[in-house]
Structure formats: C-alpha cells, structure tokens
Amino acid sequence: MSVSVLFHFAFDPASRAARLALGEAKVAFEENAVKPWEPDCPVGGLNPSGMTPVLQTTANSRVLTVCEQSAILGWLEDRTKEAFLLPTDPFERAETRRLVGWFDRRFTDEVDAVLLHERMEKPLLRLGPPEARALRAGREALKHHLQMMERLLGERDWLAGRRMSQADLVAAAHLSVLDYFSEIGWANYPGLKTWYMKLKSRPCFRTLLSDRFPGVAPAAHYTDLDF
Fold first, then answer.
1. Architecture of the 4-78 domain
2. Residue 29, SS3 per DSSP
3. What's the pTM value of the predicted model, to 2 decimals?
4. What local confidence, expressed as pLDDT, does residue 126 receive?
5. Cα separation, 222 vs 87, whole angstroms
6. Which one-letter DSSP state was computed for residue 216?
C-alpha cells in the first residue's frame, strides 16, 4: 500500500478528529467513507470493535492498521521527534490529555449520545422522529460544556494553553458536527466563537465543510469562515 487510507464516517466526531490531525500533519491520505452500522462495512474486518476511524498505512514496508482516534493521534505524535499536537510543557501536556478524555467520555455521553442520537442516528436507522424531551436534555448538557470551554478560552489562547493541541482538534470535531445541525448558539459564547473561527480557517478543516448529511442541509453559517 503506497497511499494511506482512512476509513471513516463523515459525521462521527472521532473520525473528524482523525481527519483534522492528519491534515495538520500533512499526511497524504485517501478517504474511504463507510457506514459502520451496515453488516458489510469493511471496518469490521479491520478493527475488532467495528468502530471508526481506522487508518491503513505502511511502516517499514509493512501494512500498519491503526484503529480509532487515540491510536491515530498517538501514531502521528510518534512520527516525529518534535512535539506535534502534545505540548512539551508538562502542565499543558497533562491538560491536553485531560480535555481529550473529557470529550471522549463526558461530552460523548452527555451530549453526543443524546443530541446526535436524536438528530443523526434516528434518521439513519429509521427509528422515528426526535423526541422533544431528549433534545431539551441534550441541549441543556451542551450548554454546560460550552460554558466550560468559554471559561477556559477566557484564560488561554487555546483550550489547553498557549498552543494548539489535540484538545482543540478533538473539541472542534465534536462541535463541528453539532454546528452542522444548528445546535450551537455561537452568539452566547464569543470567546469560543473566535477560537472556532481560527480552527475553521485552517486548511485541514476544508474537507469537513464539504460534508453533507442526507436530507439535512447544514446551518446557514456552516461553511462561512468568518461567521
């Protein structure tokens, strides 16, 4: 295999984080968009968990299969002797890991598992219309997370400190999916909005802005870099 291939689902936040990180690292890769819920999805034969993203690449003339967000981010970090998306400062390094864990667990459990289930998974799996009570609960949880991010960005240049890190890309991956579905009231979070505009303007973000969910148009500002 001469070209790296990323198996991903376009509206999976972990897949988006991998795409952003690969883009930042300037790793050339082909995208293989998959549907993980379908029984013939090729990811099932690559990753025992069946979860996206999965990167297939070559290392020392051998095919290397790197499964899921954490391993892909770690692989990118291991490719160079210099810090890539993990800061060298011990505090910022620890804070980056804390925030990545926060999004992988609490944000996923409290926000994505509710809002993205109602707005995205139900239409895909034909599970019926969104439930108003669930949407209210998910939006209330989202508000608390956005307030936390706004506080952090009032004290720092980036989420974990002075430089962009894994935490910023992982957070942006989650928020970008929710933003597609018009779930973020940016006017209430000016610091967060400025941070997101900086990330949204980076070249690695371009492919995300071209993603389209079947039957749902993106928020009017979704592709606007200066919204």
1. 3-Layer(aba) Sandwich (3.40)
2. strand
3. 0.96
4. 94
5. 30
6. B
Cis peptide before 53 (omega within 30 of 0): yes
Give CA–CA dist 70/92, Å, rounded. Answer: 18
Q: Which amino acid would we find at residue 126? A: R
Q: In whole angstroms, what is the distance from residue 145 CA to residue 141 CA?
A: 7
- Same fold yes or no, 4-78 and 90-209: no
Which pLDDT score is estimated for 2? 62
Strand 29-33: give its sheet, edge to edge: 29-33, 4-8, 54-59, 62-67
121 pLDDT higher than 90: yes
What percent of the residues of the chain are helix, what percent strand, and what percent coil, each to the nearest 5?
Answer: 55, 10, 35
Architecture of domain 90-209: Up-down Bundle (1.20)
Which residues are registered as beta bridge partners of 213?
A: 216
Q: What is the DSSP letter of 213?
A: B
Alpha helices in 38-126, H assignment, sequence order: 68-78, 90-102, 122-125
Domain ranges of the chain: 4-78, 90-209
